[in-house]
Amino acid sequence: MGKLLRSAVMSSRGRRRSQAALAVVAVMTALLFSPAGRSAVSPYSRSKEYQLKNIKTHLRFDTDHREVMGDVTHTVSVIREGITALHFDCSELTVNQVTVDGKPAEFTNTDDKLSVTLSKPAKRGDDHTIEIHYHGFPKKGLYFVLPDKDYPNQPIEVWSQGEDEDTHYYIPIYDYPNNRTTSEMILTVPAGWVTISNGKLVGIKNESDGTKTWDWRQSEPIATYLISVVAGQFDQKDAAWRDMPLNYLVPKGDSAKLQPTYVRTPDMLSTFSDRLGVRYPWVKYAQSAVNDFVVGGMENASATTLTTRGLVNPAMAGETPEDSDGLVSHEMAHQWFGDLVTCKDWADLWLNEGFATYFEHYWNETHYGQDAVDYEFWRDSRGWFRQERLFSAPIVNYNQDNSLQFSGNIYTKGGLVLRMLREKLGDADFFGSLKVYLDTNRYKNVVTADLVKSIEETTGTSVDDFFHQWVFGAGAPKFTVSYEYDAPSSQLKLTVKQTQKVEGRVGLFHVPIQVEVGTDGGQTTYPIDVQEAEETFTFTIDGQPRMVIFDKGNQILKSVEFHRTPAELIYQLQHAETVPDRADAAAALGEVKENAEVTAALGHTAVTDAFWGVRQEALTALGAIGGPDAEKQMLAALVNPWPWVRQTGVEQLGHFPSDATLAQKIADVAEHDKAWRVRGAALEALGEMKAPGAYAVLETAVGSDSPDNVLRNAALRGFGSPADDKAVPMLQTWAAPGKPIDTRGAAISSLGKLDKKNTEITQQLEGYLQDTHLDVQRAAFLALAARGDKDSIPAIEAFAKSDSVPIGMRPTIGRVIEQMKEGKPADLSFAGPGNGRQTPAGAKPSEATNADLMDAIQSLQKQVTDLSGQMKKMQSNGAGQRR
């Protein structure tokens, strides 16, 4: 699914703090939130009574009552000898009539199961046709987004979301991925509506009552959770890729966002098809953006659904490094990995999500360059280590309550493992194996052993050890590294210790490491093989080492404690060849206080490094150092050509104490910068630094118009920092129903921080937990968590039990409730130990810092996704996941 809004999610699907203010997917991701669904699903595949052969569904909708009326015809082939009934998953639906092979049949509908009695015991191989007529008012699986008194111009939308096991809330069906089928979706809707579903549109029929019936036919077998329905008032643009239809949909009125959001779709299809040697496998590719979507994106076969939070406003296109490419490429990659071949059980979900995450990165590699993808992987590895709870769980994990309980493993770690596998095999064998894997298992369900088999049969290379430690084993190596240099013998002795606690599924790791040593004579790379708890490696070098890099280019998922002097780190910052090594040096130098050479070096890097990500890391490091010298360097870096780098600089300056000169310079940025997002970041910075006159500036900005309300929303968020309670009435006004949803979320966020003893505010926030918009509910929960009022615990507990709460959010709610009961501040950063920094000698490792709000959301097990604006692409301070 959608990046975790990527990534989430998710994992780090929060790559860039410069994107934290975006309301895009969680870009969100998403990465990136998990879909609403049952509190638990089975990690083990089900036993089957029958094999689905075809499902033909005809749906009609009563939007006034949020009702679905349906007729579904299942064609099945019996597998089990002697069964007397056929069972279908069926929740919250009223079944009116059932026939078997054209004859009325007895049935019962209890405990989420529809049991249909056969006229006689079946024989293995018998074919039966079961027709079910039903109606219902689904609370999940199928969603109605409708206009109301507060939002009278909201376009009408009806859309589905089947993963994990929610299709049976609107169709009585076999609802687990290990039963693939062809399908047909017939939708009778008002004449002005547009519809999208799986497969080919075979016809549109005008009905006598003025409605139209759309007939979509999926001729290749897919898992039932991939069945899709999108219907309503949409703007549509059609295109083609290699003579195959492409459909792009956005809600009515958002047509300007079509082109900048979907523009690179044809190039992505070519990139993936050509590199895999397997052409895009379906008859069309549709991408529909819908409001209030419960995830960043969902990879329904041939018909992806995306959140409107990922749409790119043309006025802000190019203000983030990739716009929505992360979300779009992630869901597209699923068309091969997840749709063409589908995990047999939820424990092997990484075969869907890990591959989609990896190929999201692969698109960035091919389109944006090696530096961009190396930086993403560096962020991801650091973000993964921040989530301590993931460490003891393997990627393939049958000990879980739902498929996204350890989403950071199946998304982020899965993508990192595939990167290491590619490095191990080489490009020819890696991509050749994937072609065999896809061709061999086309339209089939798979487990990890199928991938291993394809690799070994294609390449002759045993990968058992690799999969044992990285996929079936847990954790990753934690290294403590030190070195000594003996000048007379020109010998450098490198000591490497593995310090992870060896227990459960976590063992010692056997990994190849590239050690780069820089001297005045140049830089040399030495390959070593690390496999013991402690080892020493000796190299003959040509002089005093100026820098020593352990794991050049960050090829291995790991954390490293490696103390170097500031001088060595400055040299690495200025001379290291790869982006991760320069970024590592910048991050480590951010721990060094009161060192003019360090501050100057970081300032120089912030305006001269060839890659924007290293510039961002240098600015973040300067923000951590603080002080007048760092401020001066950061102000000089605001001339950066990349908007997202300027945004990082402005955000970091918000941490500095206010002075009249700095406040005026930030106010100038807020008024004059060419990028809307930078201007928004400057407004928030003014609030954070409690600048004189900030209230008036923010108040003016609230009254201004801007694309996607970016300035108004930033100003409303800015009111949460000065803790000036006189902003409460204004925030309450903008938090109220009828205001734009994203604006309400910004106002609610700040309300949670003000006048904390005011019970009226607390009650207002509790009321928003019952809002009809999921984004408002989420914002209210986070605001109450920040407020910390124990009296709110019952309301939050009730919210956690509601059907609208995504699975992946529930564990977070539980942890926050426990913290509130103990009187502790709610920790929404989820920052764990071992953030991957290589720290300088004598520096105190930084304590885990709170991520900004969007980064916190991204960490809720699913994510944005994931977004490139997706949450999975956001970054927290000095630390580096989407469905």
Strands, total number = 29
Beginning-to-end CA distance, first to last residue? 3 Å
**Rg:** 27 Å
Average residue-wise pLDDT? 89
Q: Biggest sheet: strands, sense, closure?
A: 8 strands, mixed
Strand content: 15-25%
Total number of helices = 26
Class of secondary structure makeup: alpha+beta
What general outline do the C-alpha atoms trace? globular
Low-confidence sequence ranges: 4-39, 829-883
* Strand line-up in the sheet with most strands: 5-4-8-2-1-11-14-13
Question: Share of helix among residues?
Answer: 25-40%
Key phrases:
26 helices, 883 residues, alpha+beta, globular, single chain, 22% strand, 8-stranded mixed beta sheet, 5-stranded mixed beta sheet
Your description of this structure?
The protein is an alpha+beta fold and 883 residues long. It is built from 26 helices and 29 strands. Strands 5-4-8-2-1-11-14-13 form an 8-stranded mixed sheet, with no helix packed on it. Strand 16 and strand 17 form a beta hairpin. The radius of gyration is 27 Å and the shape is globular. Mean pLDDT is 89; it is low at 4-39 and 829-883.
TL;DR of this structure?
The protein is α+β, with helices and mostly antiparallel strands and about 900 residues long.
Give the SSE map.
Elements lengths: L49 E13 L4 E12 L6 E5 L3 E8 L2 E2 L2 E4 L2 E5 L9 E10 L5 E4 L11 E4 L19 E11 L3 E4 L2 E7 L4 E13 L5 E4 L1 E8 L2 E8 L6 H5 L2 H12 L8 E6 L6 E2 L4 E5 L17 H9 L7 E3 L6 H19 L1 H17 L20 H19 L1 H14 L3 E3 L1 H12 L4 H9 L5 E9 L4 E8 L12 E9 L2 E9 L3 E7 L6 E4 L8 E4 L3 H10 L3 H11 L6 H13 L3 H14 L2 H9 L6 H11 L6 H13 L3 H13 L5 H9 L7 H9 L9 H8 L5 H11 L7 H10 L5 H14 L5 H8 L9 H12 L31 H6 L25
Parallel strand pairs: 1-11, 17-18, 18-20, 21-22, 23-29
Antiparallel strand pairs: 1-2, 2-8, 3-7, 4-5, 4-8, 6-7, 9-10, 10-15, 11-14, 12-15, 13-14, 16-17, 19-20, 23-24, 24-27, 25-26, 25-28
Helix pairs in contact: 2-3, 3-4, 4-5, 4-6, 5-6, 6-7, 7-8, 10-11, 10-12, 11-13, 12-13, 12-14, 13-14, 13-15, 15-17, 16-17, 17-18, 17-19, 18-19, 19-21, 20-21, 21-23, 22-23, 24-25
